[in-house]
Amino acid sequence: MAKLLKYANGQLIFECPGCDHAHGVYSKPTGHPQGGPSWDWNGSMDKPTFSPSILVQGEHRCHSFVREGKIQYLVDCSHGLAGQTVELPEINEEEW
Ligand SMILES: [Zn+2]
């Protein structure tokens, strides 16, 4: 089952177990509509890989690599999964 949602604007959404909410990235070659950052994506909805790393500064600092459907949290995350690698949760389109 899919671990990503793809929005019409090209944004890819995944659920982050560390922050307990969703993060979104824009993939190349379409990229960010306002010229913001975009990521290389392997095209897989089930085992996505993004490059380079993803840094989110929200309620938590969240810095991760998404590779082959897993999310590898770097040690500089401020949430409880810092330094751990976990399976990305499957995402149910009907809940969105
Ligand atoms: Zn996160």
Task: Determine the mean pLDDT.
Answer: 94
Proportion of residues in extended strands: 35-45%
Bound molecules: zinc ion
Distance N to C terminus: 15 Å
Helix content: under 10%
The SS-based structural class is mainly beta
The coarse silhouette is globular
Structural Rg: 13 Å
What is shown here, in short?
The protein is mainly beta and 96 residues long. The protein has no helices and nine strands.
Summarize the structure in words.
This protein is mainly beta. It has one domain (5-91). It contains no helices and nine strands. The strands form three sheets. Strands 6-7-8-9 form a four-stranded antiparallel beta sheet, with no helix packed on it. Strands 1-2-3 form a three-stranded antiparallel beta sheet, with no helix packed on it. β6 and β7 form a beta hairpin. The mean pLDDT is 94. Bound molecules: zinc ion (ZN).
List the helices and strands and how they pair.
Blueprint: E1 5-6, E2 11-16, E3 21-26, E4 40-41, E5 50-51, E6 54-57, E7 61-67, E8 70-73, E9 85-87
Antiparallel strand pairs: 1-2, 2-3, 4-5, 6-7, 7-8, 8-9
Give descriptors for this structure.
4-stranded antiparallel sheet, 3-stranded antiparallel sheet, 9 strands, binds zinc ion
